[in-house]
Structures are given as structure tokens and as C-alpha cells.
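User: I'm putting together notes for a lab meeting next week and I want to include a structural view of one of the chains we've been expressing. I don't have a solved structure, so I'd like a prediction I can at least talk through. The sequence is below, exactly as it appears in our construct file.
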Amino acid sequence: MTANPYQQQYGQPGAYAPIPQPPQQQPARPNKAAGWLHIVSVVTLGLMAGLFFAFDISVMPGLAKTDDRTYVTAMQQFNAEIDGNGLFVLIFCGAIIAAGLAAVLEFRRGRKTIALWAGLAAALYLIVLMLTMGVEIPLNNQLADLGNPAKIHDFSLVDKFKGSWESVNIVRTLLNTAALGCAAYAAKLHGRAEALLGSGR
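Assistant: Thanks for the context. Below is the predicted structure for the 201-residue chain, given as C-alpha cells.
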């Protein structure tokens, strides 16, 4: 009679070899980089939305009550200060970078819903950038090309500037606010996902 090899090894007839257990997977680590990107996108989008909104409800209505020469002088000074401000450029460009990178990291982690909301925030803000580059900045440049307001005699450009610039800025405010809402919701979903991950669920 042939000896059972498992009997020799385990001392019991008919014993079976233990089933090898698959290696345990390491638990997923918290995505801290995405978390910080969500925070940065919410803060920067909020700052930009606030800036546009301030122009809508205070700056432009206030300037509309002044004469054309004062209007041109003020807008030229506003634009010069903003264009030369490094902090503004950082926030202005950082908003879309943070939202876009957050969307990419969430997508790579398999969190497609969070990636969708972060990506939507980036897309909405991209439209804001396009309106800024395609409409607002060219109008600002035309106003700057008028030169010294004290020497200007033809202010016909001012009426065109007011109608176009102010209307587009309202659209920028609405789009930027919508982008902020999307970014905030993405951050909320990210926090919820990280909390579930931390609890081991």
C-alpha cells in the first residue's frame, strides 16, 4: 500500500495540505496631495470670485457716477496695479492648476465622481480665463493706449468699454462662483472618502 505523503507530513491519514493564503494587500494611504490641492483650489477660486464680484457691485457702479476722464484714470490705475502684482498672477493662474491637478489625482485613484466635480471646476474657470484673455484684457489695453487722461479729447471708447467690460465681468463672476461651488463640493467628497478610508470601511 502506497503511503500517503500528507500522512507522513501531518501525522493524520487523509490530511490535506493547507491552502496557501494570498498576500494581504496594504491598506490605501490617505491622498494628502489631493487634499491640499482641493483646499488651494477652493481658496483661490473664492478670492477670484470675490474680486470679480467687488467690481460688479461697487467699483464699476461707483465709477459710472464719475466723468469719463476720472473713469479712464481710475481704470488705468486699477489695471496697472493688477498687472504688476505677482500675488494676483499666482492666484489667477494657480486656481486652474490646483483644480486640474486635483481632478487628475482623484481620477488616478479611481474616485471618478470627485474627479468629475474638480474637473468641472477647472473647466468653468478655464472659460473665465478665456473671457479675460479674449475680451477684458484687449479692452484694458485699448483704454491704456489712450494715454494720459488729462490729454484725452475723444472719450467715445469709454461707452464701448463700459458696455462690454462690465457685462463680461458679470459673466465671469457667475462662472467663477459656479467653479467655486464645484470645487467646494469636490473637496467635501474628498474629505468624506478620506474619512471612510481612515475608518477602514
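A couple of points you could mention at the meeting. The chain has six helices and no strands. The chain has a mean pLDDT of 88.

User: Perfect, that's what I needed.
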